[in-house]
Amino acid sequence: MSGASSPGPIRGRRSDLRLRVVSSMVMVPAAAATVFAGGPAFQLAVLLICALMAWEWGSLVADRSRRTLACGLVFAVSATALAWMLLRGPYEGVAAAVTGALCVIVAGRFGKLPRAPWLAVAIISIAMPAIALLWLRHSVPLGLETVVWALATVILTDIGAYVAGRTIGGPKLLPKVSPSKTWAGLFGGMAAAVTGALVATAFVEGANPWVLAPLGALLAVVAQIGDLMESAVKRFFRVKDSGHLIPGHGGVLDRVDGQIAVLPLVALAVHVSGQSMLSW
């Protein structure tokens, strides 16, 4: 009996990997096209992703009867913050997001808003990386290169962690939060991110590999912290995936959890230093 049942999990893993590859072959070129296009196309793409994230957050937080209210509120506040950012600047966009999140918490205390603190978390987790992404792409020297490197670092981290975790296995990273993540996956993700950073130095004039390589490793750790935080949220709400939109990957939040953590940090580092991290 045991021998007959063993191929099932193997076929399941192969099927899951096949779905991941096919989905990535659709998503990555589409995302790359909008990033390189910039302008209104890029802004609309970011807004669409924000809408999908808002829907998944609302589906996690609220029951079916209040899901539309929760999703609509999260998206409305996040979209308003993005609009303020585009019209006035990043400070105003961040202020709008924080103010909106605080207003939601206050409204939850005096009204019938479902799980208002979680809705506030949703607003911040959507608005902050979106503001960072738009600001980096259009307002920073080497903005396109910085965005491509940041996004690619998280993607490579996911790939490296997945491959190393599946092939090497070993001790679990935080089994109570995410039973599938291993220390091998963490180091595999860091190695992939460092490799990506070294490749980037070949395409960006003036990029220092001795600086960019450790930065890549650091961002890989941050990306996996973001992944673990999203896993903790899903465990709290007792769901396996944030959604089912992307075959083999789950929901949108499952794919951008690392970006949620990495993009604001990159934007903050660029803002404080006054130059792209690729120029450090």
Task: Characterize the structure shown.
This protein has helices spanning 2-5, 7-37, 39-61, 67-88, 90-110, 116-139, 143-167, 183-203, 209-236, 252-273; strands spanning 172-174, 178-182. It is mainly alpha-helical and 280 residues long. Strand 1 and strand 2 form a beta hairpin. A two-stranded antiparallel sheet has the order 1-2. It folds into two domains: 36-139, no CATH class; 142-280, no CATH class. It is globular. The protein starts with a helix and ends in a 7-residue tail after the last helix. The chain is 79% helix and 3% strand.
Features:
globular, disordered N terminus, 2 domains, 10 helices, two-stranded antiparallel sheet, 280 residues, mainly alpha
Please give the structural blueprint.
Layout: H1 2-5, H2 7-37, H3 39-61, H4 67-88, H5 90-110, H6 116-139, H7 143-167, E1 172-174, E2 178-182, H8 183-203, H9 209-236, H10 252-273
First-to-last CA distance = 60 Å
> How do the helices and strands follow one another from N- to C-terminus?
HHHHHHHEEHHH
The percent range for helix content is over 70%
Structural class: mainly alpha
Question: DSSP strand (E) fraction?
Answer: under 5%
Kindly report the spatial arrangement of strands forming the biggest sheet. Answer: 1-2
Radius of gyration computed on alpha carbons? 19 Å
Morphology: globular
Low-confidence stretches: 1-10
The main pleated sheet reads as: 2 strands, antiparallel
Number of domains: 2
Care to count the β-strands?
2
Average pLDDT metric: 86
- How many helices does DSSP assign? 10
